[in-house]
Write a structure and sequence with these properties.
- The chain has 77 residues and is an alpha+beta fold.
- It has three helices and three strands.
- Strand 2 and strand 3 form a beta hairpin.
- The longest helix has 25 residues.
């Protein structure tokens, strides 16, 4: 699994606002999230919808695995 390095793909809020279309095209093409900084601090993340969906599905699956392990451990599974 590839580790996401947030610092490598970021821009300021001002730069983002000045050229939203270009940043959106890049995010969709590269399939890499973009961190938007406000006043020098990470503020938001822009990512492709399909990549976001995959991320949410993975998180849900991990939550189900953790819950199942707890049930098995307590003798309920």
């Amino acid at each position: 699994m590839t580790k996401i390095k947030l610092e490598e793909n970021s821009c300021s809020l001002n730069d983002f606002q000045a050229d939203v279309a270009t940043f959106m095209t890049k995010v969709k093409k590269d399939q890499e999230p973009l961190v938007i900084k406000e006043k020098g601090s990470n503020s938001a993340v822009l990512m492709d919808v399909e990549e976001y969906r995959k991320l949410v599905e993975k998180a849900q699956l991990l939550e189900e695995i953790v819950a199942a392990r707890k049930e098995i451990k307590s003798g309920e599974g």
